[in-house]
Specification:
binds magnesium ion; alpha/beta; 10 helices; binds dtdp-4-keto-L-rhamnose; Rossmann fold; binds NADPH dihydro-nicotinamide-adenine-dinucleotide phosphate
Length: 284
């Protein structure tokens, strides 16, 4: 099996590389996602047996200022990739986000629930989903949330940095979701790609997030507890932490069908956090 991955430096891409070193990983230099034709050409060039897209414009606040570039990367390029994969009869695994949902209520979102993104990043990720589905191939859209790892930019690394500088942090306690280790996402993508090769009828939209659901504030407390960081966390409402992009309050993802169809269970984020802190040399 020749696996082609868009993305080389991101959180999920690096975890894919650790688990599938023989796959081909395309960085920005090989395939810039602002150039959909270049992305399509790479799939023709390598004629892989499966494609995973692990590249995206993920700077949620910056996306508000530059929705056109964000749409090119998150919307148009994945559509072009999915189109070539459909033509070649090759499975395409694409990662999406909880930020396609409005975030009202407290019921976990199922894959068929109505979407209504609250910000530019979410709108462009939804555009990507729509184009991937429209291509009509053996696709899997895997919506995940709150991705963390020892690499790149993420909430764990931000908390370790700020927690070392400050005695107390104010963290939003009314946004609820599932922190998801990038390593678990990489494993899920590889298993899904494999299964789609043999069972293309499993194509569809699926959810995958770490369990149990929690708030950013409680997540921060666990990061400080596990790392032995002395930093108090004060709960605040989202209204007290204004940001350019609106975040959904309810990011809970119902992952039932991912378990039923692919046999992939929700990862336990506390265990994932422990492994990440060990990797960072920050576990007490
Ligand atoms: N991070 C999160 O909390 C969440 C992420 N997701 C989704 O999961 C997937 C993986 O995210 P994650 O690993 O965290 O992402 P990262 O932000 O860690 O990495 C993004 C990757 O995309 C690449 N990239 C960005 N723009 C371009 C471009 N124009 N051309 C080529 N490559 C580009 C980056 O390359 P470079 O290093 O060169 O910039 C980098 O390799 C994405 O689809 C994301 O939307 C879903 C939910 C939550
Ligand atoms: C640093 C800090 C953040 N926060 C809040 C802001 C925000 O609501 C929450 C998390 O901050 P982040 O900047 O990590 O959030 P954000 O970058 O929006 O994370 C999102 O990224 C995209 C790519 C996704 O797809 C989502 O699933 C989600 O992971 O913590 C505080 O309340 N206090 C603080 O001191
Ligand atoms: Mg972020």
């Amino acid at each position: 099996m020749t696996l082609l991955v868009f993305g080389r430096t991101g959180q999920v891409a690096l975890e894919l590389q650790a688990r599938s070193p023989d796959a081909i990983f395309l960085g920005r230099e090989q395939a810039d996602l602002t150039d959909p034709d270049a992305c399509a050409a790479m799939i023709h060039k390598y004629a892989p047996s499966a494609v995973i897209n692990a590249a995206a414009y993920t700077a949620v606040d910056r996306a508000e200022e530059d929705e056109a570039t964000t749409l090119a990367v998150n919307g148009i390029a994945p559509g072009a990739m999915a189109q070539v994969c459909a033509e070649l009869g090759v499975p395409f695994v694409h990662i999406s986000t909880d930020y396609v949902f409005a975030g009202d209520g407290d019921t976990p979102w199922t894959p068929n629930d109505a979407v209504s993104p609250p910000n530019a990043y979410g709108r462009t990720k939804l555009a990507g989903e729509d184009r991937v589905r429209a291509a009509g191939g053996a696709y899997a859209i895997l919506r995940t949330s709150w991705v963390v790892s020892a690499h790149g930019n993420n909430f764990v690394k931000t908390m370790l940095r700020l927690g070392a500088e400050r005695d107390k942090l104010t963290i939003v306690a009314d946004q609820i979701g599932g922190p998801t280790p990038a390593g678990a996402i990489a494993e899920a993508c590889l298993s899904i790609a494999d299964q789609l090769c043999a069972q293309p009828d499993r194509a569809g939209t699926y959810h995958f997030s770490g369990a149990p659901d929690t708030s950013w504030a409680d997540f921060a407390r666990e990061i400080f507890a596990q790392s032995g960081t002395e930093c108090e966390v004060e709960d605040i409402p989202t209204t007290a932490f204004p940001t350019p992009a609106t975040r959904p309050l309810n990011s809970r993802l119902d992952c039932t069908t991912t378990q039923q169809v692919f046999g992939i269970a929700r990862p336990k984020w506390r265990d994932g956090l422990s492994a990440i802190l060990t990797q960072l040399g920050a576990r007490t």
